[in-house]
Each structure stands twice: as C-alpha cells, then as structure tokens.
Design brief:
The protein is α/β, with parallel strands linked by helices and 524 residues long. It has 17 helices and 15 strands. It is 29% helix and 13% strand. This is F-box domain-containing protein.
C-alpha cells in the first residue's frame, strides 16, 4: 500500500482526520484522539502529525493523568516549537482522587526545568513551587504551562479560590496591554486566548494545610478586580460557572475590549453584574443564570437586572436568562390557591414592564414567565407577554421550572402564551420551545396545549423537552454539566452531545457553546 504521507499535506491530514473522526482541535467538545504512535512511522508522519498531536491537551485531575501532565510540561519547556502548536487546553479537577498521587519523584526529574520556566514567566517571587509540586498541588505547574503556550486559543479551567500563581500570570497578561512596559516577562500567558471557560476547583478548608486540594470542599469561582478575566487582550467568549462577582469590579476603568459572548451562572447579588456589563461594550450574546440563594423571585432584583441590561438594547442578538426553581414559595404564597393579589405583596410600590420590546436586534430569546411578565405594568391581560417580546425575535423559549404557584400568579397564563404565536402583526418567529413535558400536564407546569395547534397553523416549529434544546442561562452548557457531574465519562458526553438539538432552534448566524445555528424561515 502506498504511503499516504507522500500526498500533499492537506490531503494527507484530511485522510487522518476522517480516520479518527474529525480534527482534534476543531472545537471544545471534540473527543477525537490522534494516536501518538502514528508520529513514529517515519519522518513525514512525524513532521505532519506532531503539530496536530500537540494542538490539544486535557488533564482532569486524576492520579493516572499526573504523569501525562508532567510529561506535557517537560516537552513544551524543552522544545518551545511544540508549545507553539498548542491551541486548546482543558485543565480541570473533576476526577481528582481522594488521596494525592506521589509526585516528589516527578518533581525531582524536572526541577531544573521548573526553575527555568518560573524565571521565564516572571514567577520567581510568587511561592514555594518545590514544596507545592512535591505534594501534588498542580497550581504552579498549570500556571507554567499556560504561560508557555503563546498560541493558546481555547481554555477550560477549574480555578481554586486562592491561587497566587494564576493571579500573577493573569496580571502579567493584562499588563501586557501596555506596550510601553519594560518589565514584561519572557513568557506571558493568554495573549492569543479567544475562548475561556471557568468553574470552581476543589480547594482546602481555611485551616487546612495548603498542599493538596480537598475534593469535599468547593467554593464559587471568583471574578474581581484582581481576577478580571474579561480584561484579557483578545478574549471573545467568557463562560463563568458558579461564579462570584465581587464588589470591587465597580472600580474597573473603561478600556477597549473584544468580548462578544458572556455566560455567567452566578452566586452573587445582581448589582455586581452592572459593572461587568458596563465594561463589555461589544457584547452581542448574553446568558445569565440567576442562582441567587433566597432571591430567585425578588422583584426588586428583576427591576435592577433590567436596568443593567437596558444599555445593551442596541447590540444584543442572543439573550438567555434562567432563574432556577426556588426551594420554597414566594412571600405570601401559602398554597397554589393563594390569590394573586397576595403574592409579592411587599412590592406593590414597584411598577415596570419587561423592556425587551426595546431590544431591536435580539434574534433568540430564552426567558422565564415571571421575568417576561414584569410587575404591575401598563399592558392589559392577556397582552403582557406579546407586548414585551423583542420585535425581531426568530426563536423564543419559555422556561417552566417554577412551582405550581406561577399558574395562579400570572392571570390567564394560557392565553398569554397562546398569543405569542398568534400575534398580529406576526413576529418573525420560526421556533418556540416550552420547557415542559409532553403530553402537557397541569400540576406545576406551563399550560402550552393551545400553542401547539397555532404553531402548526403558522408553520412555527414547536418543541418541548427543553433540556435537549436550551442552555438554561449557562447551567446546561457542556462545560457546566461535566463540572457538576464528574461521573460523566467521555462516552456519556458524546451521547449527550448527539442528543442535544440546540442548533435546530438557533437562528442561522448565531453560535453558542460551540453550536452553530441552522434555523431559518425554510426550516420546514
């Protein structure tokens, strides 16, 4: 059989990609692996495939992968040309063992390389790398790898609550925006980074030895003035899972930035979102999960959130806002028969419409009924929903995780929902998703039965089973699912990806979480 490596390089690579199921670094969730042994066949195979082999690396925190992490580090420090091939890294703690692996021997064999890398990255003053690395604390090693990957474009990272190594390379990366600085290290991280996904890593209790990260204790991933990831020079997409936005973000000064997509499943007051949105002047895609303990249905929070979003009304094309189901009914709601006038009785002074009618560029909207309703607004029932929708919305989804009280609180909810596809003059709607089971049930679920026939008549795609179509403000992205479910192996991930149909209800030209929309008016 002729040697395929003698073919033109593009053709040879395409043959290899077809054989392994796709290009290994084509997107975040491609699990096609290029066998390293192929590089040993002859020089042509090595020369062509080695850049592909080093384009992607994953470490999930397991003891078995620790040797691979050290081997990857040694390779890119000894041979910087290999580091230049890195495009995608996934460095997480999802499979961290209960006991730390033995790494003292691994450190001894690489001690000189570690010191060289620390000097190149300007980290000599940070901490005791030797003591940490001997005890299987990988924070320093991860920071050194990141600092020596000049062409890194995509990164998934679990971050510890305290990590002086990460904080320092991030500070160097942000400081590099100032071209007049003379103290920039030789190796600077994140200069080519376009896509960054962050979640919390397991960290030790406050009074524990800081040598190994405990899997039992976890904290939110913090973003503050010190960890202002959104200031990275070329970042276009940022996804924060279980994020804590600190108050000091309000001191960020305006500057040029390239961020267009932001996903935050956050665990902090909505007021702290305001400075983040003020900073991201080019934002077009926004996903929010309002997982704020005890304030899921705080109407003042809704009011404040809309005020924060309003400056984005002329730029957002994609908006996804999800509020998880609360553990108890809202104030004044003793049962599902409670009169609607008794619900949220302490907010009678508030009166506001959901302002999405003013968001002229939104093409896809996913939202909860309560957020879409507003509060004491001027529109008559059952015309509130339809008068609050963006005028150019092509794809609409309604989350349905609330308890049955929502059926009592929103007057004529079924009629409100039915008028969305029945609107005259018609919206440009091509798809509607209602997050509820099929066939429709009454108890605690959205009454969407009357929408089905109208959608069929209007030639609007209609779906339920929201988990297959929607991202829940970031809670149902692939990165979030793997982060929250360490047992989700590669096979389960691929099965879930095959089942996911987000692209079917996403307008053409929109891309979210690696999914490219295919929906247009010709969907039928």
């Amino acid at each position: 059989m002729p040697d395929p490596s003698t073919l033109p390089r593009e053709i040879f690579l395409q043959i290899i990609y077809d054989a392994v199921g796709g290009k290994p670094d084509q997107w975040m969730y491609c699990y096609n692996i290029l066998p390293a042994d192929l590089c040993l066949i002859n020089w042509n195979w090595y020369h062509t495939l080695n850049p592909v082999l080093y384009s992607r690396f994953e470490f999930n925190g397991s003891g078995d992968d620790t040797k691979a992490l050290w081997g990857f580090f040694r390779a890119i420090i000894l041979r910087p040309e290999l580091a230049g091939h890195i495009r995608m890294l996934r460095l997480t703690s999802e499979s961290k063992p209960a006991r730390p692996p033995k790494t003292a021997g691994l450190y001894r064999r690489s001690a000189k390389l570690v010191q060289r890398a620390i000097t190149q990255a300007g980290l000599g003053h940070v901490g005791d790398a030797e003591a940490e690395l001997r005890q299987a604390d990988h924070r320093a090693l991860v920071a050194l790898i990141l600092a020596h990957a000049p062409n890194l474009a995509m990164l998934q990272l679990h971050v510890a609550r305290e990590d002086s190594w990460l904080d320092t390379i991030l500070a160097h990366a942000i400081a590099s925006r100032d071209k007049d600085r003379s103290d920039t290290p030789e190796a600077v991280a994140f200069q080519s980074l376009r896509t960054l996904y962050l979640a919390s890593a397991e960290t030790p209790p406050i009074n524990a030895r800081r040598t190994y990260q405990s899997r039992e204790v976890s904290y939110p991933a913090r973003m503050n003035k010190q960890r202002a990831f959104l200031r990275l020079p070329n970042l276009q997409e940022l996804q924060l899972i279980d994020a804590q936005l600190d108050d000091d973000l309000s001191t960020l000064e305006p500057e040029e930035n390239s961020l267009t997509q932001l996903t935050i499943a956050f665990r902090s007051p909505v007021e702290n979102l305001q400075p983040v949105l003020d900073y991201t002047t080019k934002l077009t895609h926004l996903s929010l999960s309002l997982s704020i303990t005890g304030r899921h249905y705080d109407l003042q929070m809704h009011h404040d959130m809309w005020n924060a979003l309003l400056p984005l009304r002329n730029q957002l094309v994609y908006l996804d806002i999800y509020s998880p189901e609360m553990n108890k009914d809202p104030e004044g709601c003793e049962s599902e028969r409670t009169p609607r006038t008794e619900l949220f009785k302490s907010y009678s002074h508030l009166s506001f419409c959901c302002p999405l009618r003013r968001f002229l560029k939104i093409r896809q909207l996913s939202i909860t009924p309560l957020l879409l309703l507003g509060h004491n607004c001027r529109h008559e029932t059952p015309l509130k929903f339809v008068n609050h929708l963006p005028p150019n919305c092509e794809s609409f989804a309604l989350y349905g995780g609330e308890r049955s009280w929502i059926l009592s609180y929103i007057e004529k909810l079924a009629e409100e929902m039915a008028l969305i596809p029945h609107n005259n003059p018609p919206l440009r709607l091509n798809s509607i998703v209602v997050d509820a089971p099929w066939p429709p049930t009454w108890s605690g679920r959205l009454p969407y039965g009357s929408m089905v026939g109208i959608c069929k008549e209007k030639r609007i795609m209609f779906n339920t089973a929201g988990r297959d179509f929607l991202f829940y403000g970031g809670e149902n992205t692939h990165f979030a699912k793997v982060t929250h479910n360490a047992a989700l192996g590669a096979a389960s991930r691929e099965e879930w990806l095959v089942r996911r149909k987000a692209r079917d209800v996403m307008p053409r030209g929109i891309e979210v979480d690696g999914e490219k929309g295919t929906l247009d008016e010709d969907w039928v």
